[in-house]
Every structure is written in structure tokens, then in C-alpha cells.
Design brief:
Helix content is 23%, strand content 25%. By secondary structure, the protein is an alpha+beta fold. The longest helix has 16 residues. It starts with 6 loop residues before the first helix and ends in a 19-residue tail after the last strand. The model has no long low-confidence stretch (mean pLDDT 92).
Length: 288
């Protein structure tokens, strides 16, 4: 792989590398994710629509706990409206799932080998990363017809560091990402003015489990630039660049595998982030 000039990433806050993975590597991820979905155990709080307010609160807390403790596990998150009131799937389970997170990179051999591949390590070195660690990973489905939109956000709102600028998203198109099926959109250059909103974890045992400090400012839609890419492309995403994706109204899914790297040298990971390294899974070093 050619050595990469980081200047484009510094200028725009994102960088597209087409043809980073082969079709075979993408198919291997799809096949493995199919096996994981076929074997998944769907937790009750995802399935049940409770009636009383108290039960609703307990369910929300269960859902929050399931999310908050997912940093070192492989867990399943579903689209809205895919269960009936008895907890039965209204659509096939494999069509109802929104994403799987947040430790595929640590627990699954296929995703571990992609994340720590020579190609990814070479890319990180060419960007000058000294001690990169992997903080989280997700497989995103963007299902046909109801894959939900992702509203404008900065990854550093959720993965906050001091100093800023130490988190980098690596987003790999497992299938073509088009204007129709919900490709990424960016505001070029929007990574230079800090973070407008932060999601922080509440003290243990208090509800709700997370809250937001600050808010997302209103942003002019015309500032966003669409970034359609072909299967196998890799998109580098600066932690502070503003990006979004629209709902998938097409009849083709837009699957992607994404993980986040942090330059650990001289960096403090915020103790208020929802995601924390655990004794079972300290953030693994990218370089092996």
C-alpha cells in the first residue's frame, strides 16, 4: 500500500481510500456476521414492550445497562418497531438488527484479523500513530427500507479525550455505500472547532445511565458533502469532524465494519465516557 499523506485528513477531517480491502475480505466479514446473527441470543429488554410506567423505566434501565456494559462484549442492537407487544419479531431477526457492538475486534477471529491486519497497521504507521489502541468496534447493517438515519454528530462527543484530536474512526464499506442506501455525509473542515456536545456516564446506580452536556448546533444541510464509496473502501474519520447518514429507503443494505483508534501516547481517556476499558478487556494495542 502506498504511504499516505495525512495532509488531506488534516484539511478535510476525513479521507477516502478506495479498494483498501478485497471483495474476498468483505465476503468473509459478511459470512461471519451471518453466523453471529444466526446464533444470537436476543435479550428480553429488547423484545418486551412493557405497559406500566415503572416497568417502562426498568426496561429502559435494562436497555441502558446492556449498552453501557457492551464495551468488552459482542451485543445486539435493533431497529425501532421490529418487535410486537409480546416480543416476537415482526420482521426476520437478520433484517431487524441495527448494529452489533462493541468488541468484535477483540472476541471474533475474523474481525480481529481485519482490525489488526498488516494493511491497517501500515496505514496507522503512515499517519504517524505511535501507540494506537482499539477502543471499540461495530458492524452496522443499515437495513433495506428501514435502516435508520444517523443524525449529525462528532465521534469525540462519545469518545472524548484530552487533548482532543487523538481519536480516529476507521470505517470500511462491506457493501457499496450509495446516495440511495445511506452513504456517509461530511462537513469538510468541521473538525477544527472543538466538540459541541458530550455524552457522559452517570455515577454507577443512578438513572438515566448517560446524559448530554451541551447540544448539537443547527447546521446548514448544504454544508454536507456526500461520500459514496464502493465495497472495500476505507474512510478515515477524524474524531471531531461532523458527519451523518440518511435513512436507507432503497432495497439494498449498506453494511459496514467500523472501529475507533486512539493514540494512547500522552492522551487521557475521559473517565466520564460511556465506554471504559475493563479488567477483562483493556484497550488492545493495534500494533502486534
Amino acid at each position: 500500500m502506498a504511504c499516505l499523506s495525512p495532509s488531506q485528513l488534516q484539511k478535510d477531517g476525513f479521507l477516502v481510500l478506495e479498494g483498501f480491502l478485497s471483495a474476498e475480505e468483505c465476503v468473509a466479514m459478511q459470512q461471519r456476521i451471518g453466523e453471529i446473527v444466526a446464533e444470537m441470543d436476543v435479550p428480553l429488554h429488547c423484545r418486551t414492550e412493557f405497559s406500566t410506567q415503572e416497568e417502562e423505566q426498568l426496561r429502559a434501565q435494562g436497555s441502558t445497562d446492556y449498552f453501557l456494559s457492551s464495551g468488552d462484549k459482542i451485543r445486539f442492537f435493533f431497529e425501532k418497531g421490529v418487535f410486537d407487544e409480546k416480543g416476537n419479531f415482526l420482521v426476520p431477526p437478520e433484517k431487524s438488527i441495527n448494529k452489533i457492538g462493541h468488541a468484535l475486534h477483540a472476541h471474533d477471529p475474523v474481525f480481529k484479523s481485519i482490525t489488526h491486519s498488516f494493511k491497517v497497521q501500515t496505514l496507522a504507521r503512515s499517519l504517524g500513530l505511535q501507540m494506537p489502541v482499539v477502543v471499540q468496534s461495530m458492524y452496522i447493517f443499515k437495513q433495506p427500507h428501514f435502516g435508520g438515519e444517523v443524525s449529525p454528530h462528532q465521534d469525540a462527543s462519545f469518545l472524548y479525550t484530552e487533548p482532543l484530536g487523538r481519536v480516529l474512526g476507521v470505517w470500511i464499506a462491506v457493501e457499496d455505500a450509495t446516495l440511495e442506501n445511506g452513504c456517509l455525509w461530511f462537513i469538510p473542515g468541521s473538525h477544527t472547532s472543538g466538540v459541541s456536545r458530550r455524552m457522559v456516564r452517570a455515577p454507577v446506580g443512578s438513572a438515566p445511565g448517560t446524559s448530554f452536556l451541551g447540544s448539537e448546533p443547527a447546521r446548514d444541510n448544504s454544508l454536507f458533502v456526500p461520500t459514496p464509496v464502493q465495497r472495500g473502501a476505507l474512510v478515515l474519520i477524524h474524531g471531531e469532524v461532523v458527519h451523518k447518514s440518511k435513512q436507507n429507503l432503497s432495497d439494498r443494505s449498506r453494511q459496514a465494519y467500523t472501529f475507533h483508534l486512539m493514540e494512547a501516547s500522552g492522551t487521557t481517556w475521559s473517565p466520564e465516557n460511556w465506554l471504559q476499558p475493563t479488567a477483562e478487556l483493556p484497550f488492545p494495542q493495534l500494533y502486534t
